[in-house]
Amino acid sequence: MARDLAIDLGTANTLVYMKGRGIVLNEPSVIAVNRKSGEVLATGHEAWDMIGRTPSYIVAVRPLRGGAITDFDITERMIRLLLQRVGVSRFTRPKVVICVPSAITEVERRAVTDATRRAGASDAQLIEQPMAAAIGANLPIDEPVGNMIIDIGGGTSETAVISLGGVVALEAVRVGSFDIDATIQSYVRREHGVAIGERTAEEIKIHIGSAEPSPEDQSADIRGRDLVSGLPKTVRLTAEEVRFAIEEPVAAIVMSVKRCLSKAPPELAQDFISRGIYLVGGGGMLRGLADRISRETSVPVLMSSQPLEAVVLGAGHCIENYQSLRGMFMGSRR
Amino acid sequence: MMAMGILTTIFSLCAATCGAVLLVLVFLDFRKTRIDDGISAFRRHIDALSPQARRDSIVRHDDDSNMGRSK
Lengths: 334, 71
Prior knowledge:
Strand order of the largest sheet of chain A: 3-2-1-9-10
Number of strands of chain B: 0
Helix content of chain B: over 70%
CATH topology of the largest domain in chain A: Nucleotidyltransferase, domain 5
Largest sheet of chain A: 5 strands, mixed
Helix content of chain A: 25-40%
CATH architecture of the largest domain in chain A: 2-Layer Sandwich
Shape of chain B: rod-shaped
Largest sheet of chain B: none
Distance between the termini of chain B: 99 Å
Largest interface: A-B, 25 and 20 residues
Oligomer: heterodimer
Structural class of chain A: alpha+beta
Number of helices of chain A: 11
CATH class of the largest domain in chain A: Alpha Beta
């Protein structure tokens, strides 16, 4: 008998929680495929190392963008490999709960459930990421108080107000940390005439990126390809430049938080001031983002203790209490 | 003979009335059960989200992570 699973199928990373055992897999959502034969060559960390460094016959891709499947066939194969790696065989078909952005369309939902069933699951249920994140971040969502959570992932940012086990207000935008990386890439290209890859852009964001000025602001030397000469070139990038470059996606995220706050009922809104807003997801780890949201909303913003694992832990809790929490799944009657 | 017919009719009417009353009682009881089901299902749902219920799956993970860090 297979152990049931919860999967956080994120744009950036995929995490798998196994019932009774906890998190058993955590790796990038990347798959490397041989273009000629269609064979899968690598997944996860190994495939991530190949991004932008493959010969022409190999393609290392992220099969999800903005939390939605862009390539159904590759996603199905990736899920099948994930299930195999955690011990699922063709004779043991587990129930699977998958975390998806709340903004996905009906067609995208069908694509995720169909891909999971075809990959070997006996039943595939979907749960909204902010709800799973609130459970995983250990917020008191069983009480009649306002809990606000912001989940900033690779492709989407979602803000939800949760009370008494249900979503009261929700706001989602298809802007995430990959959009921040893309704006860094285009800024360096435009202002310095240097082309950099998405991994370099991510490293810039991690090392000197910030959403608010700080005394710890630094600068860094960036290596890329000169667009005019075609030769390798090093340029110096300051934290202020990066902050300017990423302003657009950061502002879009802050605006969505404000919209969610304005949707919240007044009775719950007063709770946020005393309890604060919780931030989860890899994108939420951008330096100064919590301070920026706090400054613009006048509400304290706190970082969850497990920002990267909160979503899968919440979904894992749902798989541990499958019957009691069935109402949380998307498309259920509650 | 005629008296037998009248008695049969009366008994039939009584049986039909009893049957109808029984059906109404069963229906009302069923409805009551459904309402109770909703309350108990909601209670189960809320209880499953309580910090005590989450202790096993989430807090255990926190503890494991902290132990991993301290190693």
